[in-house]
Amino acid sequence: MRVVVLPRIGTSEAWRAEARALAGEGVRPEDVSWSRGEASPGLLDGMSAPSGTPRTLTVPRAFPNFADAVICHSDPERFALLYALLLRLQDRPGLLADRADPQVGRLRKLEKAVHRDMHKMKAFVRFREVGAPDPETGRRSFVSWFEPDHYIAEAMAGFFTRRFASMSWIIATPDMGIAWDGTRSELIPDPPRPPDGEDAAEDLWRTYYANIFNPARLMVKAMQSEMPKKYWRNLPEARLIPDLIASAPARVDAMRAAEASEPTPTAVAVARRRETDMDLFLPRNIPGLAKEAAGCTRCPLHGPATQTVFGEGPEDAPLMFVGEQPGDNEDLEGRPFVGPAGQLFDACARKAGIDRDAAYVTNAVKHFKFTPRGKSRIHQRPSAGEVSACRWWLESEAEVIRPALFVALGATALHALTGDGKGILKRRGSFERGRFGAPVFVTVHPSYLLRLPDASKRAEEEARFVEDLAAVQEELGRLVA
């Protein structure tokens, strides 16, 4: 049995080096025992492992980022599972996109759990100032304590040093601490938990939270899902939550009973432009927005269309694809990207290593625009006014999903996301600044590929589209690392 003990700092790099060496010797997955930090007792290190076939490794472009995320998980079998998958990839390069494979499916769940843990760390780290500012530089020092489910501190160091570069700080977790002094970062194994205490900023934070808390939108289960109770003891605003929940019904009744004030001219104009009655008490999540959008009459497209076709996907999706509008199949089924273009999109996404189930897909326009021709309905491109009228829904989806990266599929989506859809073929493959915070990757809509009459040209453009999606997957790995 070959025993491999990986270091706690630099675990991913060490795993890759060990995996290459083991594969080069032809060591089989079942003949390796992996651990992090210390070897399991009772194992016989140094015994020659039964040999398989020596391999020279090649991996898909998406594998390194995928493996880095899985290695951060706390599952003790993650290293062995990854090594077994690595060897299988040599014979099946497209295996990583096979969501039906049990091993890939299990590893995808580990990857998703790590990304969710990283998202929670970004959302729930709260700094507390300690000591006085440095008399020479004026730099202030802060500490924070966070308890992740997985070993994500090293992977998150880059994010926090970029985000809080102007101050000195330590983020301590039970496994690893991140320290930043303004010039360099350092990882500290088993850091002590900072002493309890408060600073003036925590009072300001509680005041802010109390004022933005909307009792009319309260959904306790959804709130606890997004902000699990395990984090509450380290959040200054958490002590307010029980009283805010208890007082919410009375506050809602008071809001309803209060006499309405005269609206401003601007508010009247905005309401007229929207031209729809929205239920302000619907939850601000995707099902609530979809229910709200079902009665949308913002533009004339709602008349001939069968139904509103809203986006779908997980609300914590790091990746959001935006197309043009639903087609004939989507209009009848009420789901996005289920027609021929959607099926082609799914196939290309699999080749690029993108997990469609982990992404959110939607359209810039939510109703099908068409011209009747006999029994057929021929697609028509939405006008700028129709895209503008539907931007409210796209913006609402973006606020809920908060993806790390948008992908504009076609000129209409690019216009909706950036304000300019011109010259898409020249801009294809680039990352641009969007309206909703996260960067926007520019590529064509898969329906463009289907309309190409020449088979060889279509194959060439399809391969290029897969390359575009692979670049998306690669950039996403950097953004969520």
TrEMBL record:
Keyword vocabulary terms for this entry: 4Fe-4S, DNA damage, DNA repair, Hydrolase, Iron, Iron-sulfur, Metal-binding
Residues annotated as domain Uracil-DNA glycosylase-like: 310-470
One Pfam family here: DUF4130
KW Transmembrane (keyword) present: no
Annotated segments matching region Disordered: 31-51
Family: Belongs to the uracil-DNA glycosylase (UDG) superfamily. Type 4 (UDGa) family.
Record's protein name: Type-4 uracil-DNA glycosylase
